[in-house]
Hints:
This protein is α+β, with helices and mostly antiparallel strands. The chain has helices spanning about 20-35, 80-85, 115-120, 125-135, 145-155, and strands at about 15, 40-50, 55-60, 65, 70-75, 90-95, 100-110, 170-180, 190-195, 200-205. The protein contains 5 helices and 10 strands.
Amino acid sequence: MAILPQWDKCVRMSTTEINEILRQFDDWLTEAQKTEPEYAEAMSLATATKRGFPSVRIVLLKAVGVNGFDFYTNLTSRKARELTDNPNAALCFHWKSLDRQIRIEGAVSVINDDEADAYFASRPRASRIGAWASKQSQPMTDRFEFEARIAKYTAKFNIGDIPRPDFWSGFRLSPVRFEFWQEKQFRLHDRTVFRLENAAWLREKLYP
């Protein structure tokens, strides 16, 4: 029964460096930044509970490098709780203007404090106050409750710097699989996969 992928038939795979993969990612993202109406760095983030129940939402990519893909959130949020319980996730960039998408899978870890502090300090002041005011993903009685908390922290941090809350930080997804997808006519799409196996990156083509 040919249900599982038959990796032994992938005779045209070759090893490739992560920098080559990231160059292609950067090329596609750069093109998308020229053609997408806004937020070319928006990506779907899929997480799951310990028991495997999935959830997905859109977040913004904040940095990318050989160590992985970075995004930030309140550590009490649903996604943060799920990533703590099940530190594996998937990303998907979809650029409708280019008929392209990139899927990325891997393990997730918390970004170190120095990096989180540096990014938090770069955010607009109102966004930093919002991070303090929001009990992300928790129920609230009405919008006024949130606005009151915004006013509270606006007054608290009226003068001087706004420190990063200890309940707010970032996550880094370290990829083990990429798929670059380019739409073609008649649904004969082009699909290229890079996957990490035995410390080497392997490249293969998939049927559409």
